[in-house]
Amino acid sequence: VAKGLFMHNCILDTLAFFLESTQTVPSDVRSRKHPRTALALATVAVESAFKHWSTGYYALPESKPLQNFSATLWRFATNEVLESVDKLSPRRWEKIQEAASEYIGAHKPTPRKDAVCAQKGLVSGRATCFEADTD
Prior knowledge:
Number of strands: 0
Order of helices and strands: HHHHH
Structural class: mainly alpha
Radius of gyration: 19 Å
Largest sheet: none
Oligomer: single chain
Shape: globular
Mean pLDDT: 85
Low-confidence stretches: none
Number of domains: 1
């Protein structure tokens, strides 16, 4: 069981969605930096979800705009979490990413066509669309 800052299973599971979606990005264009913003957003998204359960029952605010996970509602909290994320050591990052990687594929998502093409080194139909000029 993972312990420590940012090691809650809900945060790790949410972060895993980001890690999984970026696996098909070619390594020459993939960022080599730690996914600091993804970790901050995962943390704040979990906080947002937990707030809906704060009474012991799932309840959304009556006001539709307050139901959204938006920059208006969560920018301040995200920036505060980023301050903590920016202080993580390389070793802590390694532990977080290792723990989150255990959740990759846990929900068995249906692979998107673009992801499958990228993994196989193929291009999608959009990249090969053309019409020969017959004039």
